[in-house]
Amino acid sequence: MGKYILKRTLQMLFTIAVVSVLIFSVVRITPTDPITSITRGKPASEETIAALKKEYNLDQSMPVQYINWVSDMFHGDFGKSYQYRESVASIIAVRMMTTLQLMLQSAVLIVFIAIPFGMLSASKMNSLLDQTATVTSLVLVSSPSFFTGILLMLLFTMVWPVFPTFGTGTDFISNIRYLALPSIALAAVHMALIMRITRSNMVEQLSANYIQTATAKGLSRPEVVYKHALKNAAIPILTVTSLELSGLLGGSVMVEKVFSLNGIGSLLADSINKSDYPVIQSLTLLMVIIFLLCNLIVDILYAVLDPRIRLK
Amino acid sequence: MSQLLEIKNLSVDIMSTRGLIHAVRQVNLDIEQGIIHGIVGESGCGKSVTAKSVMRLHHPRTVRIRGEIKFNGVDLLSLSEREMQRIRGREISMIFQDPMSALNPLFCVGDQIAEVFMHHFKDSRAAAKKKALELLEQVGIHPAQTRYQQYPFEFSGGMLQRVVIAIAVAAKPKLIIADEPTTALDVTIQAQVLELLKQLQKELNVSIMIITHNFGIVAELCDHVSVMYAGTVLETGRKRDMFRHAVNPYSRALIESIPKTGHAGQRLTTIPGTPPELFDLVDGCPFAPRCDFASDICWREKPLLAPCAGMQAPQGRLEAEGESPSGLPEGAHSAVEIGHLAACHNCCCGKEAQG
Hints:
- Chain A is an all-alpha fold and 312 residues long.
- In chain A, 78% of the residues lie in helices and 0% in strands.
- Chain A has helices at 2-29, 34-38, 46-55, 62-74, 88-123, 128-141, 145-159, 172-178, 180-206, 209-216, 221-258, 264-273, 277-305, 307-310.
- In chain A, helix 12 crosses helix 13 (277-305).
- Chain A is flat and about 85 Å long.
- The model of chain A has no long low-confidence stretch (mean pLDDT 83).
- Chain B is 35% helix and 21% strand.
- The interface between A and B is medium-sized, with 23 and 32 residues.
């Protein structure tokens, strides 16, 4: 078990190293010029440009720039934003809270609504509830988050104005209301997908032979469904849920734009527009690390759940 | 001897995407206390469907069951699901065909046995574990302490079937339904598992309803036999009577299909054709299309299960085999006495019974 975790962790570190190279190079392929973003579009003299290039380490060769970036990160320095002329770490720290809360609220919706509904749907297969849930999830899974977001905004400004439709509040509690609609818009696609995955896996497990054995033992239906079937269905559900949860950060780019939220997502969108290399690099790497951490946690959970992985 | 299980006019219809399947048609079957009763027939003859109906394991929305299944005088079909849960595993238990998939892969085997004690007797975890360990020893899994903690993937098929049997006998039920318990196993392991079943049956004085398509297993194990074909029971009686003078041509054909040793170079006896699909209800005998002795009446009228002791020799076939050509073979008891029932128009007694 310890060996298994160590192996997975080393694999993760290797992936992060490879991805950091990729991120660094891809960012530099974008056609815009970082100097324009540093001077905020104002024309600058040759000397100023040269001075700026020196200040932001842009005059050095690519490999040297990469090594500088990585070694700075190891010292806790994520660089200086071109557009804000502030340290990237402080910009991200300010924006992080909104996005984290947005992701948290979406995750709650996914874990506590989508998964239970998927299980209910499976254990009452072909009932009215199951069919309603199936149709709803089909609609949701095919609507992109910006579309769901705009629909929600329309609904809650014109018809039923109970939730604020843009901006954020001042603290966590007031933000719950402000982020209600954005989190629904962000979670909708993922909820639909996870509900369908949960349902299909539960249905598959419920028709397995060991379920018949459990029923023949005299166990009640809830015991059969939630003790025997759920544990077996949990592995694929976990896989997809972790993928979807780590994808939330990427999804927040669109949703934060639609709902004018000052989070990581909108920061990333702005930074890409302005070729703000340090911000793009740090945020993308952050997303990758969150994604890989989710996967690592799931890999460990696999082993906890499944003796066939744990004991081999 | 008293009847433990009485199945009366049982019909089971299953909804499928291709239409309604009449899987079991007016089946009557009695299983006595303390005996091993074999249900024999080819695949798709309604044997398993009948067994699952006794346990009420069918999905209520897609399967319709009519008739009566009386267990100790109580009609199981009239019980609520909650009452049925007290019967399952406690009074009637089941052994399934494929041991490799019959156990939950994510729980250690010992806990899956202990679950029965915890559920039906409200035993503590420790007490249930102690009983499960004893049971593992009893079904021949050693050393029980180590094997208890292991998971199904660490067991062989034969060993897993022993675990499944342990689960089935755990609560000392009155009836065990074994649905082709050895089909998925190696031949050498088959014999061991059958031996274990036989031994446990004696120790616990339990009735076993064993489903098989192998008359060899019947010869080995059973006291009574019923032959099923196309959702109906064609013949039922004691094993000895069945082997000596089976009446229905289908029963005879099944018995003749047992491969014999010392007949090298001979073709194996088979029954040509396959059992019919069960979408349509037929008027006549369901076996008529494959029967060598079918006459006009076989196509028109359904034979009734009636007391019978021997078959009228049809067209010299039996003479050729050197058996008595007359109706009753030598030394046969009278029909009612041996409780031998057969559904066949070729059977003299059956004809009389139908008038």
